[in-house]
Amino acid sequence: MVGSEKKSLVFAYYVTGHGFGHATRVVEVVRHLIQAGHEVHVVTGAPDYVYTTEIQLPRLFIRKVLLDCGAVQADALTVDRLASLEKYIQTAVLPRDSILATEVEWLKSIKADLVVSDVVPVACRAAADAGIRAVCCTNFSWDFIYADYVMAAGYHNRSIIWQIAEDYSHCEFVIRLPGYCPMPAFRDVIDVPLVVRRLHKTREQVRKELGILDSQKVLIYNFGGQPAGWKLKKEYLPEGWICLVCGASEDHEVPSNFVKLPKDFYTPDAIAASDVMLGKIGYGTTSEALAYKVPLVFVRRDYFNEEPFLRNMIEHYQAGVEMIRRDLLIGHWAPYIQCAVALKPSYDGGANGGEVAARLLQDTALGQYHASHGLSGARRLRDAIVLGYQLQRIIGKDIAIPAWYSLAQNELSSRTQLPNKEVVDNSSLTKENDYFAILHGDHQGLPDTLGFLKSLAEIQSSCSPQNNNKFQTREHLAAAAMFNWEEEIFLSRAPGRLDVMGGIADYSGSLVLQMPTREACHVAIQRNHPSKQKLWKHAQARQPKDGCTAVLQIVSFGSELGNRGPTFDMDLSDFVEDGQPITYEKAYNYFARDPAQKWAAYVAGTILVLMTELGIRFEDSISILVSSGVPEGKGVSSSAAVEVASMTAVAAAHGLNIDPRHLALLCQKVENHIVGAPCGVMDQMASTCGEADKLLAMVCQPAEVLGLVDIPPTVRFWGIDSGIRHSVGGSDYKSVRVGAFMGRKIIKSAASVELRSSLSNISSAQQINGFNPDEADEDSKDLLEMEASLDYLCNLSPHRYEASYATRLPESLSGQEFVEKYLDHDDSVTKIDKERNYAVRAPTRHPIYENFRVKAFKALLSAAPSNDQLSALGELMYQCHFSYSACGLGSNGTDRLVSLVQEMQHSKSSKSEGGTLYGAKITGGGSGGTVCVVGRNCLRSNEQLIEIQQRYKSATGFLPYVFEGSSPGAAKFGHLQIRLRS
């Protein structure tokens, strides 16, 4: 870069504390600024050598200060979302005032001409307070990354994101690097080429220095430091390969075909001298792989939203192959390496982004203004969408975009509609018959089923040489590659469920009322003899040389931005040990070891349960495609829909005739024992046995279906999503369940003591007076005997609870105290933590009264239509909601929605119009998720729901999704058997 003709400038360059990747790209920009004669003060938490190795000039000043923390990693490939937010609060939020005061004073003391941030939020605000212009140089911003974490932690943390976005808004513009994420918080954008560190040595020089022969192939192992506990073995590499290991500790021993690079070895030189790189996706890794045309075998990193954009860039330029984490850890590297080395990376863009960025920074510091001619946040969002973000969005998938992204998206001409607002053109969808012949079953005209058939046809057509669509998601490519399209395919469908009444009382034996949702999960399955199975390359490489073994391959649509791998595969023999199915505990550990692929337990687990419970043996290979329109984390049982659809499809493909009730119980075993979530059975029963526009009435002891309850034409139910993610695997749900089972044990024990005392008194009276006990004593004895052997809490009536046991139950009890007195709580799916204190009285009381409320609710539905009927239904729902809260299963979001319904119900306009909405309650496992609303079936009710949506958004920044409508359960739908037309 040509030096400044006017003066030497002073730059303050702030670098985020997230890893070394940011520091390494900053080095390249700083180097050009210093070469131009300017002075640069780098504010960083990275070691000095990262900068001084490349820049040995007196105009570089390093100030060791950490002003943000980036993302906290639980291990090399997993980000801890909650820990990240907590650390950011400690690092940047609590000390914010002192940080700003210190930075303003420091910026003035060095007489900075320009503040540059990559991409520290508070630096931008400090610059504004100091009266200095600021520019960001980055490919992502922390508001976008943390948005996902806030969704996991709860919306009470959303102020963190608003503050970050507000800080960024003080920038003049953002110098945007390739592979960028949406960044509408910035006003203007200037795009630059890749920022890549320059090479010091040629490929030949490096290989000679390291003693690498011309005939040897080189893999560079680059995870930013050798992760603890990861073992490297000689057999991990193909024959004739050696591996250069970056960041290995001095005491870490490696096999003879692995070479530890010295700590100060210049990594770009090693990358350029290699044939393939194995590592995680980060900007530095990606940019250097593209610039030096070295194929990258990458392993997905969980919970970091930058990845899909970098990954799309890698795959667009044919420069990468994804390795699943399981194969990384067990050393099954060869098929990925061999696939990568055959690639021809095609990146042809510039790699001089450091020089271009430095020129822009110099010009800005000299007073020039760089405007992007009014590119709005919406336009920039559209650019990112084109790069891959929106292309990966599917119906029903919650991406958790913060409000300002949603607002920007509203400006787009082609706005993607919410799933429950989508208008489906059935006439276009029925064209699936041009591709597939339906040999069995009926799609029943369901729009989502027709849409799924259409998507299958599109996947199949993508295999055609005439297909001109260059962009295909990895999900589509993987699905297209695993099916034999000339053979039969089986399809199943299972809906989610709206918990109208019953909820967490299911595991205590309550009556429950559940309505299947309009949103559903579809599964396509095909079985083939192992010799005919179409396998993915890495799965093919695992096949024994002397034959073939059965393989399970699964593709999950909608996984690309769900922070999980889109594909899963395993040898079905992994489910067998010594000729018998492996234990559920071993299966749980098998799936839990890789967070990115734990989702596969819901699908593959159905196969192990059928092997274990029904003695089924699976000798054929199985290919499964899962596409769910049931939003995750909303409390509408997306997991049960996946389990039921998967098991229904597996059963259909293998000719198994399983009773719907039995199938639901088998699916519950998947969730309880293989996934590890202690749910009751109502979710699976509703998904299996429900029918459209009816409530499934079931007594959960364990699963006795009483029948279907018609919803009166004057009554309607809706679900409103609070935006707070719900999980039955969460600790709150588990602790409440444990408390309820503790309460049952205490009640049984108290009844037993009273029974023994009663029998003793009767015996003494007989001996003294010689008379028989009267009928009242016998009735009392029978009652105590029943309560002493109480199998379900809901079999205890409210009046007996209040008369005999309410005051005997403690408000709470430690696990240690309970175990010492009662030994165990007799629940097969939860364990007592002796160190934990459990609420007992409220979790015990809830199912006893909830069972009574549900019975009353069911009776009211058959009453004559009236305002009193609706008011009574609503009152029962309100009582249920506040009982949840007493158990500790409420949330700010669901409480707010219920309050909004109450305000609407009691407003003057509603009273004058006879009322429309009458009640609401939290659903399912609580602690967030969805609220169920009951109201009059009329247009005014929908208008009021829209008003509640807008009020909720005004208060929280989140526009809630509304569940409306219903659809048939899996048993009613049956299955489809299809074959491609000639």
What does this structure look like?
- This is L-arabinokinase-like isoform X2.
- The protein is α/β, with parallel strands linked by helices and 982 residues long.
- It has 35 helices and 32 strands.
- The strands form 7 sheets. Strands 16, 17, 18, 19, 20, 23, 24, 25 and 32 form a 9-stranded mixed beta sheet that branches. A 7-stranded parallel beta sheet has the order 3-2-1-6-7-8-9, with helices on both faces. The protein has a 6-stranded parallel beta sheet with strand order 12-11-10-13-14-15, with helices on both faces.
- Strand 24 and strand 25 form a beta hairpin.
- Helix 32 crosses helix 34 (939-956).
- The chain is globular, with a radius of gyration of 31 Å.
- The N and C termini lie far apart (63 Å).
- The model is unreliable at 373-432 (pLDDT under 50).
